[in-house]
């Protein structure tokens, strides 16, 4: 049972008698009683501040009016003014600790709200020591006892150290007198879209752009996406081109709340399309989150067959563009309780979500899991206090830098209702910092944009981490989590593939813009194979070369008349004759690999050029690295 329910029960319970209590309600100054009764009635109408004022008048008349202090404390608890609630509970306890015993539970909740978990645990233990507690009260007390102990254990395991949780209100350009919530941002953190409850009734989407001088004034999204119905719980794709959101009771919907998609066009956002009956069911679907490569859609659903009330699922986009049958994320994520608000970070490995089923501080807490081998998930980790509190936490999104988080809260500096805030994540719960590469794929001869497949491979594991299809004009965006080395390839039938390498094993602050000219397969066309690797002065292929070599194999397999030459090049370090031999052996090693894979030897030739054909200045390390290369040249198509 939550704070609000308990506080309401205790606020409105009226006078009660305790045989062993020192406090005697019958001796309360009768002039104070009308203020007390009016204060309680006012609180019942939802006006807690006026209720508090009236009750404070009652205790001014009779400083020993214990019930009035308890009710003031309960009202402050409703307002989440934990300090004032604690102060008034303690005034009541000082008058009569025996009479106060039943109130140790709401007192403990307010202590926990302020982060004083040791005191909260002691207080709830006193409550549970009351003889003959009714089962409902005992269950509520034991739930809080477990939560407070968890908080103390968490603090020992993960001390905050120098970390300070300091949420910053995003300001008047973003927040209004109405509630703003469910923030979502693009990869460059320059486009923010959120839900606003306009006039306190209708949910619509608003957007703001970040400039050098700050965020622009938020405006309703252009186009045909906002309607007279409620739209909310949205997620924008990392490239800013798709918006997937929740629509409830829309005409033609599959269930009560369905997932819809809208596309950014020259005229604004397109009319929403229902994602269909694989994603949507007669149950409730909400809270979508799209992976950075647009291949995976995470969402929450109450469909039958899950672990609890609300579970998190993922659907994979099929080659034909349709969404596959959703898969439950399993027991590492889902519990017998409710899980919702999934957010998959730009690193495509780190998932944040809310849960009331995993052990936490009370209500919905925020958790993080990370994707392991074969798409398995690590054990859920609570984000800890003070990010999580005794209240219900909502959606959280994290920028590509892995540090900056956005969320909604009704803190003391709110402009009205929920506002959007930003804060810095604690280091141990951050995702990988993620850079990105974007640009346009085009025909080298005509300059025309080419729809193509863009693939990112982990060079160490040889696992394909991301496979993105460009848009119809060849534009693409691929995310690059730091800490790994990647092979980057672009493929299109009838063209030589493009090869690039990103070495991000060490921190890098570069963001890449690469326009990619693809060369039609024709005589004398050539490409540098940037993911063919050898040890210094050796010609044995390193394991990291496999993904690139297999791309060459597929190129030859899919173009059975294609004949190529592999050319080896070195820098100018060492003797020219040694470099010539080394480059020749390296080119031959590639040919041997392809022959072993089944390519006819007659389609392959090789030649070493040593240092005779540099493409950069050998006077620098960077230049020498460019000169050490393996090239593929077309002999005939």
Task: Give your account of this protein's structure.
By secondary structure, the chain is α+β, with helices and mostly antiparallel strands. Helices cover 24% and strands 29% of the residues. The chain contains twelve helices and 34 strands. α4 runs antiparallel to α5 and α8 runs antiparallel to α9 (135-157). The longest helix is centred in the first third of the chain and has 23 residues, at 135-157. The chain is elongated and about 110 Å long. The termini are far apart. Residues 1-19 have low confidence and may be disordered.
Number of helices: 12
Radius of gyration: 32 Å
Overall CATH architecture of the largest domain: 6 Propeller
Mean pLDDT value:
92
Poorly predicted runs are 1-19
Largest sheet: 5 strands, antiparallel
Question: What is the assigned CATH homologous superfamily of the largest domain?
Answer: TolB, C-terminal domain
What is CATH's topology name of the largest domain? Neuraminidase
Beta-strand residue percentage: 25-35%
For the record, the CATH class of the largest domain is: Mainly Beta
Helicity range of the residues? 10-25%
């Amino acid at each position: 049972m939550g704070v609000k329910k308990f506080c309401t029960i205790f606020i409105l319970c009226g006078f009660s008698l305790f045989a062993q209590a020192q406090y005697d309600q019958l001796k309360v100054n009768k002039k104070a009683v009308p203020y007390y009764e009016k204060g309680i009635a006012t609180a019942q109408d939802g006006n807690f501040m006026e209720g508090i004022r009236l009750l404070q008048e009652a205790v001014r008349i009779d400083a020993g009016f214990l019930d009035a202090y308890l009710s003031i404390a309960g009202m402050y608890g409703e307002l989440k003014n934990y300090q004032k609630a604690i102060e008034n509970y303690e005034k009541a306890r000082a008058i009569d600790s025996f009479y106060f015993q039943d109130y140790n539970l709401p007192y403990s909740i307010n202590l926990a709200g302020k982060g004083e978990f040791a005191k909260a645990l002691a207080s709830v233990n006193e409550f549970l020591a009351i003889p003959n507690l009714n089962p409902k009260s005992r269950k509520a007390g034991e739930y809080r006892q477990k939560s407070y102990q968890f908080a103390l254990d968490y603090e020992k395991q993960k001390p905050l150290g120098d970390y300070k949780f300091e949420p910053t209100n995003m300001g008047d350009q973003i927040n209004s007198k109405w509630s703003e919530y469910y923030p979502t941002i693009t990869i460059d953190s320059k486009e923010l879209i959120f839900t606003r409850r306009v006039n306190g009734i209708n949910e619509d989407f608003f957007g703001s752009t970040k400039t050098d001088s700050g965020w622009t004034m938020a405006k309703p999204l252009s186009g045909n996406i906002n309607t007279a119905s409620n739209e909310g719980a949205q997620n924008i794709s990392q490239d800013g081109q798709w918006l997937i959101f929740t629509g409830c009771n829309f005409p033609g919907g599959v269930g009560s709340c369905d997932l819809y998609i809208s596309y950014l066009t020259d005229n604004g956002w397109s009319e929403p399309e229902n994602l269909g009956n694989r994603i949507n069911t007669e149950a409730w679907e909400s809270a979508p989150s799209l992976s950075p490569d647009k291949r995976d859609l995470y969402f929450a659903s109450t469909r039958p067959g899950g672990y609890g009330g609300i579970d998190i699922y993922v659907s994979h986009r099929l080659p034909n563009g349709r969404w596959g049958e959703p898969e439950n994320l399993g027991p590492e994520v889902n519990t017998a309780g409710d899980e919702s608000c999934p957010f998959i970070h730009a690193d495509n490995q780190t998932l944040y979500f809310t849960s009331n089923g995993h052990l936490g501080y009370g209500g919905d807490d925020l958790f993080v899991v990370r994707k392991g081998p074969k798409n398995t998930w690590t054990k859920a980790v609570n984000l800890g206090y003070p990010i999580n509190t005794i209240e219900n936490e909502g959606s959280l999104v994290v920028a590509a830098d892995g540090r900056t988080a956005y969320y909604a809260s009704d803190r003391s500096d709110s402009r009205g209702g929920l506002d959007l805030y930003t804060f810095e994540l604690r280091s141990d719960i951050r995702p990988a910092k993620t850079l990105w590469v974007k640009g346009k794929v085009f025909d080298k001869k005509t300059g025309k944009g080419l729809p193509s497949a863009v693939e990112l491979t982990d060079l160490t594991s040889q696992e394909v981490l991301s496979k993105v299809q460009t848009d119809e004009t060849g534009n693409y965006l691929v995310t690059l989590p730091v800490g790994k080395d990647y092979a980057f390839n672009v493929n299109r039938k009838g063209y030589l593939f493009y090869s690039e390498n990103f070495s991000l094993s060490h921190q890098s602050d570069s963001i890449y813009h690469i326009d990619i000219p693809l060369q039609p397969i024709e005589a004398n066309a050539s490409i540098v194979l940037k993911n063919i690797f050898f040890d210094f002065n050796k010609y044995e292929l390193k394991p990291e070369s496999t993904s690139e070599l297999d791309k060459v194999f597929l190129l030859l397999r899919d173009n059975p008349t294609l004949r190529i030459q592999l050319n080896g090049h070195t820098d100018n370090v060492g003797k020219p004759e040694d470099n010539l031999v080394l480059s020749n052996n390296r080119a031959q090693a590639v040919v041997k690999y392809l022959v072993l894979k089944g390519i006819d030897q007659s389609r392959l030739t090789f030649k070493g050029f040593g240092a005779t054909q540099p493409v950069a200045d050998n006077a620098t390390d960077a230049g020498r690295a460019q000169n050490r290369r393996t090239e593929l040249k077309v002999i005939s198509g």
